[in-house]
Amino acid sequence: MVTAVLSLALLVWAAVAAAVQRRQRSDAEIQLFPRNGGSGDPVRSPPPRSRSVVPLIAIGVAALWVVVGLPRSWLSGERIPSAGGLEGPSTQLTFQRGVEASPSFSPDGEWIAYRGETAGSGDILLRDIRGNRILNLTGHLNADESDPAFSPDGRQIAFRSSFRNGGLYLIDREGKDVRRLTSFGASPAWTPDGRAILFATRSSLDPRNWGGLSEGWTVDVTSGRVTRITRGDFRQPSVSPDGRYVAYWSAMPPSLDAARPRRFPRIRVASIDGRNPRQVGSGAWMDWSPAWSPDGDHLYFLSDRGGHTAIWRAPIDRRTGAAGDAVPVGANSETATHLTIAHDGRRLAWSTLESSPTMFRVAFEPDARSIRGDPAEVAAGPPSWRCAEPSPDGSMLAVAADDGQPDIYVVRIENGRRRAVTTDEALEGCPRWSPDGTRIIFHSDAGGLNRLWIAASDGTGLRIAASATGELTHPVWSPDGGAVVAWDSDLSTLRLIWLSGASSSGSEIWPAPLHAFTPIAWSPDGTSLIGTTEGNLWIFDRETAAYEPLMSGSAPTWLSTSRRIIFATEGRLAMLDLPSRYTRAIMAVPDVQLDAPLLSPDNRWLYFNRNAAEANLWMLTFN
């Protein structure tokens, strides 16, 4: 068949070439003989019908399309099943309270590995798609797991875990033979031959919550050797079936476009080594969570184009990696966060995510290191927000809203009155109060580049706080309020910035950590900075200029002694004594996630968020 088509195409193309050559020669003769022998338009007579080349060109193009456009699987005799139409019934697979997320189909399509919550922490669960059997593969690790990914042969599952200071692990599908693969990383994606895994340095589900730079790496499954493939933002990778390309989404483009005030998360297709990334689509919307079709001809992904989250599909040129126009998939997926496709191409699965954080405060006894009384809700002005921080005197809140446009507000707790600090289309990060409560600082990408901005406590006087070179995010005030430390994404390290009057007066580059580091809190005595890396607590000692891992956890806050911290871990609040490394529980509520603890300056009040997060798995079967 292929030989016959090639022969036909060559014959037709020869005829077309001859006809075109005759037509070009005729046109040249017309141009050489203008009307009446002088200047002016040439005399053009309609060519004879028998000399028209349009039908021949059409036939030639069609024939060539048959040859060039045939999928390689057809030419080789292998037919990969097609997904058919883009419509079909959707089925909810899980109904448990809590978060069931990050699904991954087994190669035979009969099982799904996913993150499920048991006893307040995440485990890797395995269930058949009919729901008759569920296995907990990692419950014995007593840690938090997420991001499972089936190996191409279906025998192993790669996943992220906070076990023993965190990293990527492998486990067989029976829950045995756990092996640590890396000391960091998240979102693993296998190469088709099963020899390597591409991964990100951050686990990402919600494109609105950037959380810091996520780099792209690869690890050899046999040797454990890791290699960085990109320093640019790299999240939720998906490897093409032929192993030539990797698709991922990025919150920060490789090159800055100063003409575009707001930068939206975009999907990119790069060569497997991270080079030559191509962007998939453009416009004022967010695209994330890519998944290749089994034949490699399409890329499925999530997008809020059209005003709401939905699944979309774009054709991909397998020779160049270039993407065509995307079309929506008929499925109710308005709260989808993570997408995967079965190896037969007939089923899509995704996880939903709905969260409504509420801030509480409770009396705290610093000497007894325990809470007293019942927590009381703290009113927060906007109906939906990503993060909120109370002022040092407890009268105000600085809030990053999450109700369509992520602006910064200051809210008076007493009566709920609020004032917008920002009203543009830029993406702003969580605001932080100065130690004296007179100012708030936050990061914003207004103008196309993340910078630190500052405003008075009442929301007025907005200005750029620091214009140092580099992408600056996650500012943390020094104890005296005279400086801030921020993460410099360009240099992948911390930058100390002195603030003087209306502008910064200089900066200092601190040593670079091994992995992306999110600064959270400066110790009251000014000697240490604590932050997080991939779900684990790390501390930076200013005297030794060294980073040290502590344990799994997030959102640490210091006690005034600079010896202890309170942090969130596995849905509860705990306290860590740094000299002894002794940990004790402070607060836990069954079936409720507690996070973002923050102590008032006098240590008499403990603020925290109660997240009523709910996520379930859904599956679409194409008609």
What are the main properties of this structure?
disordered N terminus, about 10% helix, globular, about 625 residues, four-stranded antiparallel β-sheet, mainly beta
Overall strand count: 48
Mean pLDDT: 80
Helix coverage percent of residues?
Answer: under 10%
Query: What is the end-to-end distance?
Result: 30 Å
Tell me the strand order in the biggest sheet.
Answer: 1-48-23-22
* Overall 3D form: globular
The helix tally amounts to 3
Rounded to an integer, what's the Rg over CA atoms? 29 Å
Brief write-up:
This protein is mainly β and 623 residues long. It is built from 3 helices and 48 strands.
Write the layout of secondary structure elements.
Blueprint: H1 2-32, H2 54-69, H3 72-75, E1 90-92, E2 101-105, E3 111-118, E4 121-128, E5 134-136, E6 145-150, E7 156-161, E8 167-172, E9 179-180, E10 186-190, E11 196-200, E12 216-220, E13 226-230, E14 235-239, E15 245-250, E16 266-271, E17 278-280, E18 287-292, E19 298-303, E20 310-315, E21 327-328, E22 336-341, E23 347-352, E24 357-365, E25 370-378, E26 385-390, E27 396-401, E28 408-412, E29 418-420, E30 432-433, E31 439-444, E32 451-456, E33 463-466, E34 472-477, E35 483-488, E36 493-500, E37 503-509, E38 518-522, E39 528-533, E40 536-541, E41 546-552, E42 554-558, E43 564-569, E44 572-577, E45 582-587, E46 593-599, E47 605-611, E48 617-621
